[in-house]
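Notebook, p. 212. Picked up where the previous page left off. The plan for this session was modest: take the two constructs that came back from the sequencing core last week, fold each one, and keep the raw output in the notebook itself so nobody has to go hunting through shared drives later. Recording the first one now, exactly as returned: residue sequence, then the structure token string.
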Amino acid sequence: MQRVSLDMGKQVAFVGVDLKDNREAAAGFLKKIPVTYPSYDDPSGQVYNAEKLVGVPSTLFYDASGKQTFVHQGPYFDRAALVDDIRQYALR
């Protein structure tokens, strides 16, 4: 995510949501592996519940008008798959 956000950050916004995690552990993780996009705590799982997600990680895509266009459940194992989904679901 970080590498793709650096490459495509002028075309698409990235936002991280830390679901039901220990705040100190999450802050420690972000110190070890910093990201250039904002990351927010979701201690009660409001985003998870509102979006009816079935697992984490999940990546939600929105178009320029703010309409949700796709939800990818699970991790991205390679950069190309993430970039393809960004082009198909966020930049269309």
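Okay, moving on. Second construct, recorded in the same format:
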Amino acid sequence: MLAPSRPAPAQLVADVERLLERLDELPDGPAREVAGDLLAALLALYGAGLERMVEEIAARDDGSLAAALAGDELVSHMLMLHGLHPVSLPDRVRGAIEDVRPYLESHAGNVELVAIEEPTVRLRLQGSCHGCPSSQATLKLALEEAIVKAAPEIEQVIAEEDPHEEPPLLQIEWASCLPRG
């Protein structure tokens, strides 16, 4: 027998956001307020239950169960929503950067974490990406995707070029510019 398919976490989040937008559009103010209060109460209830679960796991786990739960995209998002994620934001951002570093190095690039100022992460791109807009955009996109997956609370990744790095030299073929004769 096949296991029932589960909706993707991104789809579940999109569904909640869509329903929240519909809630905001309701014409009846008192009904909208009651629905919002109900939603807040449900979040508090589930948050309190999750907090107890995390406490029980922490008391009995060698760390492997907590790591597995934190590694699950949906569970990780829920834990983060309630301020219960076992891995700190800086550690999750640094881990995401380390996961992407081999890809950056394969393009003769590198990255330095400049600052985390929630909801923004500032990075400094180094290496061959300097001065090449398409290469820089590709590397920045890879970093953004990894960081937002590991830390959904991050809304913006700003990547700047290394100010100490020399721009690449432009090679000009003079022979093709000289008159032939």
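Notes on construct two before I forget. The helical segments are 9-24, 29-60, 64-71, 73-81, 89-106, 133-150.
Flagging for discussion at group meeting.
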